[in-house]
Specification:
The complex is a heterodimer of chains A (343) and B (589).
Chain A: H1 2-35, H2 40-43, H3 52-61, H4 68-80, H5 97-132, H6 137-151, H7 154-168, H8 191-197, H9 201-238, H10 241-248, H11 253-290, H12 296-305, H13 309-337
Helix pairs in contact in A: 1-13, 5-6, 5-9, 5-11, 6-9, 7-9, 7-11, 8-9, 9-11, 10-11, 11-12, 11-13, 12-13
Chain B: H1 4-10, H2 21-48, E1 56-63, H3 72-85, E2 89-96, H4 98-106, E3 112-117, H5 129-132, H6 134-140, H7 147-158, H8 162-179, E4 182-195, E5 220-225, H9 240-249, E6 254-256, E7 263-265, E8 285-289, H10 304-317, H11 325-330, E9 348-350, E10 356-360, H12 368-371, E11 403-409, E12 413-418, E13 441-446, H13 450-458, H14 460-463, E14 467-469, H15 474-487, E15 489-504, H16 512-521, H17 524-530, E16 537-538, H18 553-558, H19 564-574, H20 576-587
Parallel strand pairs in B: 1-2, 1-3, 5-13, 5-14
Antiparallel strand pairs in B: 3-15, 4-14, 4-15, 4-16, 6-7, 8-10, 9-10, 11-12, 12-13
Helix pairs in contact in B: 7-8, 13-15, 16-19
The chains are: A mainly alpha (343), B alpha+beta (589).
Chain lengths: 343, 589
């Protein structure tokens, strides 16, 4: 019971810390965007500027004629009421920010989850093999691979995959989440899930085929980090006392590796998963662009170029909330596994 | 007894010989004289000799976030090298993302900068008045003002006499070449790639028509594009793709022929002219007779009252970033605050019978018919949102055009399906297209990058994509042109209506001679070769060559190739070494 209270207190404390962090982040973004040069209202009409009264009208419609401090107060109170405002950029003019984010979030979630699966699978497997076969040729190859793959630019790898598997071999679609008009009936926005919900296996396969290249691209690049981390942990656990004890008891080496060394090597990996999710979201921006997937990464890019301040703020809030949430969950899991982590 | 030699050894050393004062002094004097002579030579040389070679300095700005595609930095670099090649102008390249770029030009902070223009209506006036009228020039950052030119612009806008218009356009283009507030560079090309066998894929100068395309053996066309929909409300749309889709789903009083930019009846029975009496002789009254029995996709009637209400709606709402100003300002329909921001009372007249509508203009607008072919004037159903923008989701997009919008997933997909009871399926029968729409369905996939577009058509057998339209990079376009036969596709490249040009802020580059020198330095052919791989068309006037009244004035006055002799003569006449310090002081903020 004492440890349960401690875990709960830890969780509450972490949650409580997240709120001021988000507040500070929002304020910083709000200020930075207003300091930077460029008038998003003027950008609305591109090169065809109408009269000053029309521009003044637009500025009033968007609330940009109010004092900055009033804009800040309005914005912050709205955010905590769940209203992220409306877009003031040319691309999504007048559209609620949350609407645009919600339309694109499923694409990024699908890409992120798929990529994490690839990253963890490939990273863990290669890390275990390399750690168990220290200083062998296989270990050297895997270490070299993990260094190279982690250094490769995501967009370059993506273009390479597109060229080989789509253009030359014609095995997989080159880009996009979907091609054609028969998209799955919307339920979650995740095409893989929606196709299963509607019971259309053909759609499920189509959605998966569009996901393969982007998730492998992003997942492999991030997997390099997991390879190194798991290998480093394996090197310690393979020679740890409990592993030696297991060997002494006559347990086969394979079981020593997978039942003892591997499990203990995996524990620290869980704690870095949260950090890797943040990196994954950052990598998703490039991957979305390369594979023409309209996720929130692409939304952020487009909003930055049009200085769509409310959209930039909204996307960053969502990013931050997701990453804080995932980190919180992982920290709690880590605290459950290892009580030394708790306060 | 002391040894004599010892004495000598002990004897103090004789002092060193004293310096010859006179010799050192003379050396010093000679050195001073030489220095004085050098200084005199330098001073006198500066006063009476040629001043050291100094350059007329300008900042050349360009957009760096892809607003005009991926070739901007290349284009700017080539221009810099061309302008500097004559030796008397120094160019500093600067760049900004679009929002900042837009602000800077509006505030007049840029000396010379690259811009592009896509016409709102297909009339040569739209290539002149936004640039050379005083108000237009202020909007577009040149701040050029010439009351004579303003008068000429008013004359060409208000006359219905083609000869008068031609004469005024000649005068205006002449002033453009003399005063050089802009240097036209090139026309962008329009291009489309499609699988062999598909017919009637026309690079229309105004409106790309999906409903005339034919894919034999199929009732469906799959396409992809990098353009995005901003809004499918005619009162709001002011971007290319939104208007393109609106032109398939909605109708306008007048439409363009499938291949040319000739106006023909759409919802109206005739194109109003002075000759047929539907335009008054003074050009102030335009009457349109509507086709009877036209309905929207939801079955509601489309009549003169609906047309009037739709135009008033666009004007009243005046949605930020929309083309409403083309109606109330350029089109002179007005916007009356005492009448709820609608057109002034009596400006739009609905005749008894509800089939005829007349626009009474306070001043003649010679291209008013073109405005009635623009998407902003498309009628919308009675139940459209009267207080704001109509959502662009499927049940909310209701037009009267040959296609209905049946699917719209933002930034992913647009699906158009045949409207079975379209009012005039034989609209183009006289032009060889029996019925429209030809195909039952058009699916347009939206891609994020030009590379994705190219990949779609490269893998058309697997991707199922039949047509890609807007916009490939010059490199990809050239590559597809070279491999078209192998890929089994056709790639069409034609003149596009978009123009690219340099804007010269006449407040920051006030010397006409300097602006003319820049004009003499530009090599359009080299730009086309180096930057666009031969796919752009050199432009010698703000009016492109495929438009009426075009005159290649910049070719006539400045020649087709750089003329450094002429450029340098102009700059020498300026005496710009003295001017240079003035420029630097002016820039010291």
């Amino acid at each position: 019971m004492g440890s349960g209270r401690s875990l709960a207190a830890y969780a509450v404390a972490r949650l409580a810390l997240a709120i001021p962090m988000l507040l500070i982040l929002l304020t910083a973004i709000f200020v930075i965007l207003r300091i930077l040069p460029g008038d998003p209202v003027l950008a609305l009409w591109g090169g065809n500027q109408p009269g000053p009264e029309v521009i003044a009208d637009a500025r009033a419609q968007l609330g940009l004629d109010k004092p900055v401090i009033v804009q800040y107060w309005d914005y912050m109170t709205n955010v905590f009421r769940g209203d992220l405002g409306v877009s003031i950029g040319f691309q999504y003019r007048g559209s609620p920010v949350w609407t645009e984010i919600a339309e694109r979030l499923p694409a990024t979630i699908e890409l992120t989850i798929g990529s994490m699966i690839v990253a963890v699978s490939v990273g863990v497997i290669t890390g275990v093999i390399a750690g168990a076969r220290r200083d062998t040729k296989l270990d050297v190859v895997i270490r070299l691979y993990s260094t190279i793959i982690y250094a490769i630019p995501i967009f370059w790898l993506g273009l390479l995959f597109q060229l080989v598997f789509a253009v030359w071999l014609g095995w997989l679609p080159a880009n996009g989440r979907w091609t054609g008009g028969d998209i799955p009936t919307p339920a979650t926005g995740l095409f893989t899930v929606d196709s299963l919900v509607e019971g259309n296996f053909g759609h499920f396969v189509k959605a998966l085929r569009h996901l393969i290249l982007p998730t492998i691209t992003l997942g492999l690049v991030l997997g390099g980090f997991f390879t190194k981390t798991v290998r480093a942990n394996m090197l310690q656990t393979v020679v740890a006392d409990y592993s030696d004890a297991a060997r002494a008891r006559g347990i086969p080496e394979r079981k020593v590796i997978f039942r003892h060394a591997f499990r203990n090597a995996l524990s620290p990996v869980v704690t870095v998963l949260g950090l890797q999710f943040a990196i994954l979201f950052a990598g998703a921006v490039l991957t979305e662009r390369t594979f023409s997937i309209d996720g929130i990464g692409n939304l952020l890019l487009t909003s930055i170029t049009s200085k769509d301040m409310t959209m930039i703020q909204g996307v960053i809030v969502v990013y931050a909330t997701i990453i804080v949430g995932i980190s919180l969950v992982i920290d709690i899991i880590g605290a459950m596994i290892d009580p030394r982590v708790r306060l | 007894m002391v040894d004599e030699e010892e004495q000598k050894a002990d004897a103090p050393e004789a002092p060193a010989a004293a310096p010859v004062k006179g010799k050192g002094m003379w050396i010093g004097i000679v050195v001073v004289v030489i220095v004085i002579v050098i200084l005199l030579v330098a001073v006198f040389g500066g006063l009476f000799g040629q001043p050291p070679a100094r350059k007329y300095q300008i900042d050349l700005w360009y957009n760096n976030d892809g607003h005009y595609g991926d070739t901007e930095d290349e284009l700017a670099t080539v221009l810099k090298n061309q302008i500097e090649a004559c030796g008397k102008i120094g160019v500093t390249l600067r760049n900004d993302p679009w929002a900042v770029y837009r602000t800077n030009w509006a505030q007049g902070l840029m000396d010379v900068f690259l811009l592009g223009w896509y016409p709102d209506y297909f009339d040569s006036d739209d290539y002149i008045s936004p640039f050379l009228s005083t108000s237009g020039a202020a909007s577009l950052g040149s701040f050029y003002t010439n009351t004579t030119v303003d008068g000429w612009i008013t004359q060409e806008q208000t006359t219905t006499n083609p000869a008068t218009r031609a004469a005024r356009f000649t005068d205006i283009q002449g002033s453009l070449a003399d005063d050089v507030p802009y240097v036209p560079l090139f026309s962008g090309n329009a291009h489309v790639a499609y699988v062999n066998g598909i017919t009637d894929v026309e690079l229309h100068p105004v409106s790309f028509k999906w409903f005339i395309m034919d894919k034999p053996g199929s009732n469906e066309i799959n396409a992809s594009t990098t353009d995005k929909i901003i809004s499918l409300d005619p009162a709001s749309a002011y971007d290319y793709f939104s208007i393109e889709v609106i032109n398939q789903v909605f109708d306008t009083l007048l439409v363009y022929e499938p291949v040319t930019a000739t106006l023909m009846p759409g919802l109206a029975q005739q194109v109003p002219t002075v000759a047929n009496g539907l335009v008054s002789a003074d050009g102030l009254n335009y009457t349109y007779r509507l086709k009877p029995g036209v309905t929207f996709h939801d079955g509601t009637a489309l009549n003169a009252t609906v047309v009037a209400r739709s135009i008033d709606r666009a004007i009243r709402l005046n949605i930020g970033g929309s083309a409403a100003f083309l109606l109330y300002d350029v089109g002179a329909l007005g916007r009356d605050a005492t009448n709820g921001n609608n057109t002034p009372v009596g400006r739009i007249e609905v005749h008894p019978g509800n089939m005829n509508i007349t626009f009474h203009l306070p001043r003649a607008v010679s291209f008013f018919n073109d405005l009635m072919a623009f998407s902003v004037s498309a009628p919308v159903p009675w139940n459209y949102n009267q207080a704001g923008e109509q959502p662009s989701t499927v049940p909310n997009v209701v037009g009267s055009g040959p296609y209905r919008l049946t699917q719209h997933t933002a930034n992913l997909l647009v699906v158009l399906d045949r409207y079975a009871t379209y009012h005039t399926p034989n609209l183009y029968a006289g032009l060889g297209i029996a019925t429209i729409p030809v195909e039952d369905k058009v699916t347009i996939n939206i891609r994020l990058t030009a590379t994705a577009l190219k990949q779609d058509i490269e893998t058309h057998a697997a991707s199922g994509i039949d047509v890609i339209y807007r916009t490939l990079t010059p490199t990809d376009l050239t590559d597809l042109l070279g491999r078209a036969a192998t890929l089994g596709i056709t790639v069409d490249v034609g003149s596009g209506p978009q123009i690219r040009y340099l804007v010269i802020n006449v407040n920051r580059v006030p010397e006409v001679a300097a602006r003319q020198a820049i004009a003499y330095s530009v090599n359009r052919a080299e730009i086309d070769t180096l930057v666009f791989e031969g796919t752009a068309e050199p432009l010698y006037s703000m009016i492109p060559s495929n438009m009426p009244y075009h005159e290649p004035v910049f070719n006539t006055v400045y020649g087709g190739l750089p003329n450094c002799t002429a450029a340098n003569n102009l700059l020498t006449q300026l005496g710009f070494s003295i001017r240079l310090s003035g420029i630097w002081i002016a820039r010291d903020r």
